[in-house]
Design a protein that fits this description.
The structure holds two protein chains of two kinds. Chain A is mostly helical. Chain A is built from four helices and one strand, in the order βαααα. Chain A is 61% helix and 8% strand. In chain B, helix 1 (3-28) packs antiparallel against helix 7 and helix 4 crosses helix 5 (138-164). Classes of the chains: A mainly alpha, B mainly alpha. The interface between A and B is large, with 46 and 64 residues.
């Protein structure tokens, strides 16, 4: 007696490179919106960036609304 | 699914869900932010740090316009970031998630992540409006918040993996284990060191709106990524075995 089985095979195959790219996007985006206090622009503008807080002010309202500590 | 397509649908899903989050915030959170900043201004005048004059209000209007204009943009950036994390977890867990199609699976995962990496950390370290929070403690508060998110998220992952090793009738022990773990962490982790000086009705209403805003993101990302995955993933196939 033969037995026939119908199997539904669902594959999820994404590359490790794609995972790595998205992990970097995650970390960078989270830092920009949640934690930057002038750090990113300080690469170009030096100490003045910590006074201007350009990204901090731009993300200020979302930072509060999304639950991140702001100031 | 090809890597480029996977990355694209994840980023577009995150951006769309983030835009929805930013728009919802713009409608329901901004009024509370304005109220809180109004109190902050009154405190500045009372302490003598600022003078209540036309120059102050001109500067104030300028930076509030800048801050408000960033609400949706920041929503998109945050949406892309959190959407990327969601996409990674979805890709790696899709075959284990319950549900007949990708929309159901994706929404279920969004619900799990909403609870573990948002709601539980929120209950320990709830959102605060401007005027609450000492600038001197912002680094400590940031470390505490992100640590609790990581503890809850990794805890959920570890207990899920442990539950996979249990018999079907005992898999619930994974959930029980996570509950005990996170309740312990909840009481062990230090409290937010800052005193709340703003009116509590304002703080509580702000927090409720904050939860609704973030929830709109998780519902949106679950539905949008699920729809995209259903449309573009061609790896589903049925094979007959004899």
């Amino acid at each position: 007696m033969s037995k026939v089985q119908q199997l539904s095979v669902s594959k999820t195959s994404v590359s490790k490179v794609a995972i790595l790219v998205l992990a970097i996007v995650f970390a960078a985006g989270l830092f920009v919106v949640g934690f930057d206090q002038g750090h990113i622009f300080s690469i170009v503008y030096g100490e003045q960036a910590f006074v201007d807080l350009t990204i901090h002010e731009l993300t200020h309202d979302m930072r509060h609304a999304a639950g991140f500590p702001c100031h | 699914m090809k890597s480029a397509l996977f990355i694209l649908i994840v980023i577009v899903s995150g951006a769309l869900a983030g835009a929805i989050h930013g728009t919802v915030n713009f409608a329901i959170v901004e009024p509370y932010l304005d109220q809180a900043i109004g109190i902050e201004n009154e405190n500045l005048f009372a302490s003598g740090e600022e003078d209540d004059n036309p120059q102050f209000w001109a500067d104030y209007e300028e930076y509030r316009v800048w801050q408000k204009s960033g609400q949706v943009l920041a929503g998109i950036i945050l949406g892309v970031a959190m959407g990327s994390l969601f996409g990674i977890v979805y890709a790696l867990s899709r075959n284990s998630l319950p549900g007949k199609n990708d929309v159901t699976k994706s929404v279920i995962l969004a619900g799990i992540m909403w609870i573990t990496i948002y709601l539980i950390p929120f209950l320990k370290y709830p959102a605060n409006p401007p005027t609450v929070g000492d600038a001197e403690t912002v680094v400590l508060r940031s470390i505490l918040y992100i640590s609790f998110i990581a503890i809850s998220g990794f805890g959920a992952f570890v207990f899920y993996k442990l539950s996979q090793k249990l018999e079907k009738s005992k898999k619930y022990l994974g959930l029980v284990g996570y509950a005990i773990f996170i309740i312990t962490a909840f009481f062990v982790m230090p409290e937010n060191p800052d005193e709340i000086t703003a009116p509590m009705n304002l703080v509580n209403e702000f927090r409720l709106m904050s939860v609704l805003g973030v929830t709109s993101f998780w519902i949106s990302i679950g539905i949008i990524l699920g729809l995209f995955w259903n449309k573009f993933d061609n790896s589903n196939s049925s094979n007959g075995y004899t």
